[in-house]
């Protein structure tokens, strides 16, 4: 089963590297503004967009929580109770080691289940792409949310998901419309381009140190992930897009 999961083996290796590498931690702090063991597109500015929706003492679920660092940040900021699941056994192992009070579990999107009205906020930062049935996922999340709860989603197009016309024509937006769930959406594509530009410069700066530490393949991957910006800003915005969706129950 694990062999069928998207990027499973790579993420198992990634989270071990993220735990052990001091250079990677420093890279994350400089490139993203904080070390949440990121490997993609979410910097501290994007993650801080969640904060206005989290009241003190809220119950938060992170779909695809990785090693839990982002949730632990929200817990500290908002005195929240945190829950998360991820398909990576290594990620959850390290999350449990870091916060023994939190609720971290191994689980697969579409298969993991929680009781109805369990959470005030459900977060999915670049994880809804793993859903085999997007409509089923959004129906499931809406059941999990308490009254007035919020589903906060960071969504990228042009790489894993094909680029569509705009923020209202994405696979995710269409699923929301099919079940009649209203949403607010922000286009942060330009912000994402600028973040990737910064990430590339810092990844190049750390490249030699990654290789000296014996994790040069990960340093090279971080650089490769920013190749999108080499086409220039206009082409980037034509071919890729990034949105933040906020869905209130």
Describe this structure in words.
The longest helix is centred in the C-terminal third of the chain and has 24 residues. The protein has a 7-stranded mixed beta sheet with strand order 3-2-1-4-5-7-6. The protein has 249 residues and is α/β, with parallel strands linked by helices. It has a single domain, classed as 3-Layer(aba) Sandwich (Rossmann fold), CATH 3.40.50. The protein is built from 10 helices and 7 strands.
Task: Describe the secondary-structure layout.
Elements: H1 8-20, H2 22-32, H3 44-48, E1 59-63, H4 69-78, E2 81-86, H5 89-98, E3 103-106, E4 119-125, H6 134-144, E5 145-157, H7 171-178, E6 184-187, H8 189-212, H9 216-224, H10 233-239, E7 241-248
Overall pLDDT metric: 93
Number of helices: 10
The sequence of SSEs as H and E is HHHEHEHEEHEHEHHHE
Can you name the CATH architecture? 3-Layer(aba) Sandwich
Structural class by secondary-structure content:
alpha/beta
The largest sheet is: 7 strands, mixed
- Count the strands? 7
The CATH superfamily name is Vaccinia Virus protein VP39
Radius of gyration from the alpha-carbon trace, in angstroms: 18 Å
The end-to-end distance, rounded to whole angstroms, is 34 Å
How many independent structural domains?
A: 1
Strand residue percentage: 15-25%
Parts with pLDDT < 50 across at least 5 consecutive residues: 1-6
**Outline type:** globular
CATH topology: Rossmann fold
Please list the strands of the largest sheet in the order they lie side by side. 3-2-1-4-5-7-6
CATH class: Alpha Beta
């Amino acid at each position: 089963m694990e062999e069928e999961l998207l990027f499973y083996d790579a993420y198992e290796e990634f989270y071990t590297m993220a735990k052990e590498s001091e250079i990677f931690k420093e890279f994350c702090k400089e490139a993203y503004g904080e070390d949440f063991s990121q490997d993609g597109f979410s910097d501290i500015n994007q993650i801080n967009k969640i904060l206005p929706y989290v009241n003190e003492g809220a119950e938060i679920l992170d779909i695809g929580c990785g090693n839990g660092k982002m949730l632990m940040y929200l817990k500290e900021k908002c005195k929240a109770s945190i829950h998360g699941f991820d398909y990576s056994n290594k990620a959850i192992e390290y999350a449990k080691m870091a916060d023994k009070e939190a609720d971290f579990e191994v689980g697969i999107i579409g298969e993991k289940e929680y009781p109805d009205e369990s959470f005030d906020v459900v977060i999915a930062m670049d994880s809804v792409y793993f859903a085999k049935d997007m409509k089923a996922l959004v129906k499931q999340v809406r059941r999990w949310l308490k009254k007035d709860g919020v589903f906060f989603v960071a969504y990228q197009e042009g790489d894993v998901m094909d680029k569509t016309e705009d923020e209202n024509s994405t696979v995710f937006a269409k699923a929301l419309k099919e079940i009649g769930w209203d949403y607010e959406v922000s286009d942060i594509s330009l912000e994402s381009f600028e973040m990737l530009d910064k990430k590339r410069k810092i990844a190049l700066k750390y490249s030699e140190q990654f290789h000296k530490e014996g994790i040069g393949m990960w340093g090279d991957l971080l650089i490769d992930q920013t190749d999108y910006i080499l086409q220039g800003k206009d082409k980037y915005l034509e071919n890729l897009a990034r949105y933040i969706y906020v869905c209130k129950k």
